[in-house]
Amino acid sequence: MDQESRKDQQPAIRVSAMPADTNAYGDIFGGWLVSMMDSAAGLTAARYSHGRAVTVAMDGMQFHQPVKVGDEVSVYTEIIKVGSSSMTIAVEAWRRERHRDSSAMVTEATFTFVAIDDNGRPRAVKG
Predict the structure, then answer these.
(1) Of all helices (H) and strands (E), which one includes residue 86?
(2) Which of 62, 50, 46, 66 minimizes the C-alpha distance to 113?
(3) Fold (topology level) of 10-115
(4) Which family does it belong to (predicted)?
(5) What are the phi and psi torsion angles at 83 (to 5°)?
């Protein structure tokens, strides 16, 4: 999806990348970015399923460009498939330099969540 397509959509998470999140080269750790994406997808899954949902898979992770300290990172989610207890969620992370208006997608992946009950067993998605 391009930047124009994202203008009217609210991100599931928006956060500033900080120095503590960097690797030895000064770029933001890929693991930090994956964590933000998983958190955003988890919020989407919990809201859609009206309860607890857990990550069971992550597919198709692609890094397009690095995130720098101070960048605003916005993570967008879209539920693309719903099963009896599972949800497949497309996730994109976009960066915007602190003093700029334009954004660029930095990574994308597909996450699969399963709705679970209080005993940790799969439950029906209430959608």
Answers:
(1) strand 86-96
(2) 46
(3) Thiol Ester Dehydrase; Chain A (3.10.129)
(4) Belongs to the acyl coenzyme A hydrolase family.
(5) -105, -165
